[in-house]
Amino acid sequence: MMKRIIFATGNENKMKEIRMILGDLGVEILSMKEAGVDVDIVEDGASFEENAEIKARAVARVLTSDIVLADDSGLEIDYLDKAPGIYSARFAGEDTSYVIKNSILLDRMEGVPEEERTARFVCAVAAVFPDGTVDVVRKTIEGRVAYESAGENGFGYDPIFYVPEYGCTTAQMSPEQKNELSHRGKALRAMRDVLKEKLDGGLR
Ligand code: ITT
Question: Which of 135, 128, 123, 131 is nearest to 193 (CA)?
Answer without folding.
Answer: 135
